[in-house]
Amino acid sequence: MVRAFDTHKIRKTRELSGCLWDFQTLPEEGEAVRLKTPVPGCWQSEPETLTYRGKACYERSFSAAGNIRLEWKGVSHTAQVYVDGEPVAEHYNAYTPFSAVVRGLPAGEHTLKVYVDNSFGPDSALHVPNDYQTYGGITRPVVLEELGGQYLSRLQVTPFLREGSWYIRAEGMVENLEDKPFDGSVGLYLEDERLAVLPVHAEAGETAAFAAEKLPCPKAEAWCPENPRLYFVSAILCAQDGQAADDLIDRMGFREIQIAGKDILFNGKKIRIKGFCRHEDHPQFGCSLPYAAMCRDLSLMRDLGANSVRTSHYPNDELFLDLCDETGMLVWEENHARGLSEEDMRNPNFERQCEDCIREMIEAHYNHPSIYIWGILNECASHTEYGRDCYQKQLALIRSLDNSRPCSFASCQFKTDICFDLPDVVSYNIYPQWYHDTPADAYLKDLYDWVQEETGGSGKPFLVTEVGAGGIYGYRTPEKVKWSEEYQAQALERQLNAIFSQEGCSGVYVWQFCDCRVCDSWFHVRPRTMNNKGVVDEYRRPKLAYETVKRIYRSVETYV
Questions:
Q1: Which tens digit of pLDDT belongs to each residue from 152-171?
Q2: Is 183 helix (H, G, I), strand (E, B) or coil?
Q3: Boundaries of each Glycoside hydrolase family 2 catalytic domain copy (predicted)?
Q4: Which residues is 269 bridged to in the sheet?
Q5: Cα 387 versus chain centre, distance
Q6: Which of 65, 192, 202, 428 is placed for a possible disulfide with 208 were both Cys, Cβ 3.0 to 4.6 Å?
Q7: What angle do CA 360, 366, 372 make, to 5 degrees?
Q8: Beta-bridge mates of residue 216
Q9: Domains recognised in the chain with CATH numbers
Q10: Are 140 and 317 in contact (CB under 8 A)?
Q11: By the 8 A CB rule, do 359 and 97 touch?
Q12: Residue 80 forms beta bridges with which residues?
């Protein structure tokens, strides 16, 4: 299952995943492991490759003719793709999609090989040994699309409200694969209603853009967490003779996010965030969660009273975002970078890999109404001048790609951060009564007052983007010592009460929803080689903290 709906009716598509592929490891020494393995999936799910880190090859055959487009929703973490022995694509980063167009395939059977590498090293600035696991494999779906001479490569729609009525701005791109110019038109539709017909001219082998600035949608209903009304929006590409040549279908919701002083406004109403940070991680599936597991996670978060999820610390599977759109779960989505020092950020590949991730994230996920904010560079070097330059460039890139949403970053630099003039929302990760014993209310007030009095973040919305404590499932003790379920529940109660009592605080993300596997090098600070701060364990069994957070979240109104 690739998306929660069909993205084409005219273009012929088929999923190449959802089946077994030929797989073999390519170790630097020792014997290779050969087996049949499911795609999508992580090779850590196979007993023979449970701890393998390195290079491997996936292979399968397919039948096609003419022009095709292959899309990978996620490969962890570096991919090299070959069709019939010829290279067609390379990509770095496990968490963003990429594609390749192959022209003029002869009719018949063809071989597809994907070389995958999940090893750590100087070429990888973002995938490093970290407080979560870097799995290996083709971890998200693979799609084959049959193309004609031209195809629609992008459709972005931005809703906005003017004098009580909804409008959309639409823009997109047409790719001309032929060696002659193309003249045609693009029809834009909301559900079955045609909004506009735009002329398109593309030179031979070139890309043509189209745009409509203000398309009225007078019957549109607003999308919001309590009523997540979705609409299909589509573009149909036609030749000069009126014959439909291609289409592209997506979903959208009508909503606006604005910043008004210290408040985040959702459709004009001040909203309070009650969220969870969530890793894509499961003991059976690694980072390659099936649809039912995603649904289960969202069901539990809704039961907990949450209205938002943070995709810590990378862009998520688009199927999960589809579910957030459908269920009204607001999303903080961020690019892939966590806990990198200035030295790490000086890796020659760092800026390019971060910028590629931002572009791919926003271009792929722009139309999701559930995404209300973009984030970058979690807990990186925002306290240094070099780090500030990186933050400034990446936030500027986000704004150049999408000025309809605010942006932020989650800092852990206590009273040393020098970047709070850059984002729209000031965000802090804090762990009072876990990494230190300062009472939560005193710690938060001290931090908030410093932001208002001594930084460029004064007068902006303020979010607590991480807070929590570790608790090992089943470890119960009347002394309520750290790592016990009792201590975790007690700490979260004090933390959340302090946050919701703090004037000027727009909300919180509990760290975290579920326990997750970490890299082995973190063993000395992570019992079980797991990050144990989930309110449910890795199997989604609730800890004592579950009911504590549920009681508090359900007592707090979404709109203030």
A1: 999 999 999 999 999 999 99
A2: strand
A3: 257-556
A4: 266
A5: 23
A6: 202
A7: 115
A8: 167
A9: 12-145 (2.60.120.260), 150-252 (2.60.40.10), 257-555 (3.20.20.80)
A10: yes
A11: no
A12: 90, 115
